[in-house]
Amino acid sequence: MYTIEFEKICSCHTKSGLEDNLTFETREDMYNKARVLECRMNQEFCMKHFFEAVDYGDKIIIHSSVRPEDDEDDEDIEDARELVKKSGVTIGFDASQVPPKESGSN
Length: 106
Description:
This protein is an alpha+beta fold. The chain has one domain (2-101). Helices cover 30% and strands 22% of the residues. The protein has helices spanning 11-16, 27-44, 80-87, and strands at residues 2-6, 22-24, 49-55, 59-66. A 4-stranded mixed beta sheet has the order 2-1-4-3, covered by helices on one side. A hairpin with a 3-residue loop joins strand 3 and strand 4. It is globular, with a radius of gyration of 16 Å. It starts with a strand and ends in a 19-residue tail after the last helix.
């Protein structure tokens, strides 16, 4: 059994509806889900924290740290959330989808 745990649960995590601890049958499933979560949290949450998924073998812990303050006083600089929204890139994980047979994933 493989697990993903969160070092700290911030208010953004609580509001997002993400489960607190996740369990997987395979290491590959755990690893893939952790990378998607890490990316989503860094793109969609409030930008006060930076999230990093660290692999400890049979579990991955998603650590959080406070993002450093931006020294720029320029009012024209866009917030990172706005940049992500404007990028048009959506990263997600839909466990109900089956990969195509030619993808090599089975």
